[in-house]
Design a protein that fits this description.
Porin, globular, mainly beta, 1 helix, 57% strand, 282 residues, three-stranded antiparallel beta sheet, twelve-stranded antiparallel beta barrel
Amino acid sequence: MRLKTEVVTGMTRLFWPIIAIGAVMVSGQAAAHDPVFGIGPHVLFKDGLEAAIEIHNEKAGSEKESELGVEVTYGITGDWAAGIDIPYAIKDSGTDTSRGLSDLQAFTKYRFWREDSLGLQESAAVLLAINGQNGDEKANPPLGNGATDVITGITYGYESLKWYKWASARYILPGKNATNFQLGNKWRVDFVAGWRPVAPEYTKPDTVWLLELNGEITDKAALNGNSLANSGGTEWFISPGIFWTTRNFAIKSGIQIPIASDLNGVQDKSDYRFKATFEWHL
């Protein structure tokens, strides 16, 4: 709780002008949905703008991390969007604490297929993201890995008036830092179901309940080309969540609960991960 309060207080002062502008400029309705932890094929309309504030907390053993991020996305066309994510993190190893800007991410998503029918839309998209190396990897604990990482992925979405389904896969290819250290390549796979209990009305709030199955399969990290025994492995999470919208404002939130873990060597298993996102569609 102390970490979360410090993050929110510090970052609110920094990003309050952006939040205020987003609240004033709203003019449409946030109709499309994406999962909380997985990735969906949602893109913006041409020249659309989405501003989001993300809060993320996680714990594994004695290690804790809290992060507050500002994300801005622009609709280049009706099927192609791009944006940037600026995160501020506080990390606590149990003995030491570090805080500051973490690795900035630039991303883009292209929806290559869409099919509409009465009360139903199906679509699919590919995505690409680049994690920069502006975080301080020399901090204790480090705020970045000191390398440029590449993330590619593909996602499918099924959205009806009552039911939602998503499936996605992402592949993370970390770079090497100045000391020739490299995190392990990682697969992230997500399967998500959503249920809307009440039919949507344009002028009224809309609620969708979510249940996600999230998996992470990670190779061992390497130093000077040698694999590190206490790294890599597999974790699976079950993640209940909610997506609530009213006109062009949306809140989505969820918690990842670990259900299976097979980590290599001596590593702390994940205890939980929490995420909340506040979005404005302009």
